[in-house]
């Protein structure tokens, strides 16, 4: 799916949290959303998912304004993996994944059919979580919950995957597994990330947000430069080139200002 | 495994249905009048066959006990289903129509109508549930409004706001009764605030039955959206659920159900809290499993609670809310202790 964000502005209350945001994600591209806390990453994801009405501009999904597409229809093409919830859900992993089939189900379909269950199992297997199927959500670790959430997103058979901090709360191994998995899917993806190295590893291109504006847009090597990092994050950084694959590796050195800009 | 869980939930539901039928059959034979079971069943059978006998025994069994047993079962089913849905909608294991003030609001509405003194019995039996519904809706609106004013719809804040509203409306109900009642005001206060099925007639069976027949299928249709809501609002939206519309529809439906039940029996507590927890411990959290089992379990529970209430301190009756609390709270404590992981924590 192609995502075209056109001079998008989104207001929450009286405050404009996104201003004049524009970029295009070509089909199959993995776009990283970077920026300090409060830069507008989650808001931008919600806008792309069609959950927010833009104040100006639009998000076009394959040419159609996202906020005008009915919820059920959009849910058949766009999956959102929200921030790792600490919430206790009184369901088992397979039940959570089966909810990903909801957008495809008729109004009077009660769910839980053998077909639904086997589809849910397939998604769990694809996300490498087949063994978690019958475990209660409350007993899963952070990394396991992340995998189950990913399986739920896959059950939606998405053509666009939106990920909000997919590596939060994960140990190093689980972080790499998650990123590797997303990059092998071949689905257009937009991921809000905190870790600059993760972005360099995962993304074809990066949208760097700063207080609701696009501060930089381009390939990881173009965006992740010492100048840009200092300007947006207020941190002095040394950017090295990875000797094997040539991607930028970011070493954060020191805060350049007393407080974050 | 999942198929096995489905089968297990179905088996429990079927067992509860059988238990309910048996309970109804047994409960109509129990009472202070000292009629034998055979006598009671003969009377019921004669009515079902359309050939009733006359007499005191007949009146006791058919006009007093049968409607009371059925009203208790219907109210229990309604309150338990309402509890399940409230808990799902607010993602709060403590939400139930009683705790969040819906029942107090419904009581106040019903008492207000009784005071207005609508002339004919027919108009009254219609106005009572409508006013109770309005009261329940008002109470819910107030609780959510206060929570929003306090800046958050978090589970804790919603429960605190609900308790405040509940206390306020209960106080208003008591005040109105004490100021205006001519006869035994305190008994009336108790039966509205703690619940009593002593006023059950075939009309209350019709009201509670109609409300359940109307609302329960709607709740059941929303089982999957309720499951999705447990994931959080953003996740539910991303799964194609309109969370605002779903909440609105279901809150109104639950208010209607609670209003109808309270108008027949006053505000009975704990059914909507305990039964859903018990059932979740047995069948897990999927609403398509929990809803039917909780409705049947609530019916059986309230039926026996009321049977105790009308026979325990013979010849005196005690408000059924006292029994649901006395039996329910210890059960609740046990459930909380043992339901780790399976239930909602």
Summarize the structure.
The complex is a heterodimer of chains A (261) and B (345). With 261 residues, chain A is an alpha/beta fold.
Helix and strand arrangement:
The complex is a heterodimer of chains A (261) and B (345).
Chain A: E1 3-12, E2 15-25, E3 30-34, H1 41-48, E4 56-61, E5 64-65, H2 71-75, E6 78-81, H3 93-98, H4 114-126, H5 142-155, E7 160-164, H6 172-185, E8 188-192, H7 196-202, E9 205-210, E10 213-218, H8 220-223, H9 226-233, E11 235-241, E12 248-255
Parallel strand pairs in A: 3-8, 3-9, 6-7, 7-8
Antiparallel strand pairs in A: 1-2, 1-4, 4-5, 9-10, 11-12
Helix pairs in contact in A: 4-5
Chain B: H1 2-27, H2 37-48, H3 56-90, H4 102-116, H5 121-149, H6 155-180, H7 185-193, H8 202-221, H9 223-229, H10 233-238, H11 243-265, H12 271-283, H13 287-311, H14 320-338
Descriptive tags:
heterodimer; A: 261 residues; alpha/beta; Rossmann fold; six-stranded mixed sheet; 12 strands; B: 345 residues; mainly alpha; ABC transporter involved in vitamin B12 uptake, BtuC; 77% helix; disordered C terminus
Succession of helices and strands of chain A: EEEHEEHEHHHEHEHEEHHEE
Instruction: Point out poorly predicted stretches of chain A.
Output: none
Number of domains of chain B: 1
* Beta-strand segment tally of chain B: 0
Poorly predicted parts of chain B: 341-345
Strand content of chain A: 25-35%
Helix content of chain A: 25-40%
Biggest interface pair, residues each? A-B, 42 and 32 residues
Structural classification of chain A = alpha/beta
Shape, principal axes of CA atoms of chain B: globular
Classified in CATH, the superfamily of chain A is P-loop containing nucleotide triphosphate hydrolases
- Total number of β-strand segments of chain A? 12
The biggest beta sheet of chain A is recorded as: 6 strands, mixed
User: Compute the gyration radius of chain B: what is it?
Assistant: 20 Å
Radius of gyration of chain A: 19 Å
- CATH architecture assignment of chain B: Orthogonal Bundle
């Amino acid at each position: 799916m192609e995502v075209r964000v056109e001079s998008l502005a989104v207001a929450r209350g009286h405050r404009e949290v996104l201003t004049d945001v524009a970029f295009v994600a070509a089909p199959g591209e993995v776009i990283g959303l970077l920026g300090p806390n409060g830069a507008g990453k989650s808001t931008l994801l919600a806008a792309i998912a069609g959950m927010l009405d833009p104040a100006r501009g639009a998000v076009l999904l394959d040419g159609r304004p996202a906020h005008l597409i009915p919820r059920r229809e959009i849910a058949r093409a766009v999956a959102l993996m929200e921030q790792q919830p600490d919430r206790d859900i009184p369901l088992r992993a397979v039940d959570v994944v089966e909810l990903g089939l909801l957008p495809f189900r008729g109004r009077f379909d009660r769910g839980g059919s053998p077909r639904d269950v086997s589809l849910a199992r397939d998604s769990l297997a694809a996300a490498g979580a087949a063994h978690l199927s019958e475990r209660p959500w409350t007993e899963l670790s952070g990394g396991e919950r992340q995998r189950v959430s990913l399986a739920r997103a896959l059950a939606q058979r998405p053509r666009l995957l939106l990920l909000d901090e997919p590596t939060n709360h994960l140990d190093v191994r689980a972080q790499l597994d998650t990123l590797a998995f997303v990059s092998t899917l071949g689905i257009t993806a937009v991921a809000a990330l905190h870790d600059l190295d993760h972005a360099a590893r995962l993304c074809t291109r990066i949208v760097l947000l700063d207080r609701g504006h696009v501060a930089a847009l381009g390939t990881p090597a173009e965006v992740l430069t010492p100048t840009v990092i200092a300007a947006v994050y207020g941190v002095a950084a040394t950017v090295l080139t990875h000797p094997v694959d040539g991607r930028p590796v970011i070493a954060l050195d020191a805060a350049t200002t007393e407080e974050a800009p | 495994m999942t198929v096995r869980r489905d089968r297990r939930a179905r088996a429990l539901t079927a067992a509860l249905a059988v238990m309910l039928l048996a309970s109804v059959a047994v409960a109509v034979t129990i009472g202070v009048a000292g009629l034998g079971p055979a006598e009671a069943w003969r009377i019921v059978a004669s009515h079902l066959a359309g050939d009733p006998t006359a007499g005191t025994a007949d009146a006791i069994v058919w006009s007093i006990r049968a409607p009371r047993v059925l009203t208790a079962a219907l109210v229990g089913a309604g309150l338990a289903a309402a509890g399940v849905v409230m808990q799902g909608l607010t993602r709060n294991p403590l939400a139930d129509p009683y705790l969040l003030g819906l029942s107090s609001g419904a009581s106040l509405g019903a008492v207000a109508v009784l005071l207005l003194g609508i002339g004919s019995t027919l108009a009254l039996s219609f106005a009572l549930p409508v006013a109770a519904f309005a009261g329940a809706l008002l109470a819910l609106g107030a609780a959510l409004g206060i929570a929003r004013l306090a800046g958050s719809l978090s589970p804790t804040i919603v429960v605190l706001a609900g308790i405040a509203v509940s206390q306020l409306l209960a106080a208003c109900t008591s005040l109105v009764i004490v100021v205006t009642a001519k006869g035994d005001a305190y008994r009336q206060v108790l039966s509205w605030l703690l619940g009593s099925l002593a006023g059950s007639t075939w009309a209350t069976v019709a009201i509670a039955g109609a409300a359940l027949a109307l609302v329960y299928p709607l709740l059941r249709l929303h089982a999957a959206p309720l499951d999705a809501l447990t994931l959080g609002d953003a996740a539910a939206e991303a799964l194609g659920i309109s969370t605002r519309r779903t909440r609105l529809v279901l809150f109104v439906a639950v208010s209607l159900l609670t209003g109808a039940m309270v108008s027949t029996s006053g505000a009975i507590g704990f059914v909507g809290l305990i039964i859903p927890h018990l059932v979740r411990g047995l069948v897990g959290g999927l609403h398509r499993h929990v809803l039917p089992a909780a409705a049947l379990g609530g019916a059986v529970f309230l039926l026996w609670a009321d049977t105790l209430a009308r026979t325990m301190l013979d010849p005196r009756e005690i408000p059924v809310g006292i029994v649901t609390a006395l039996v329910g709270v210890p059960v609740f404590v046990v459930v909380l202790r043992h339901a780790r992981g399976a239930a909602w924590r």
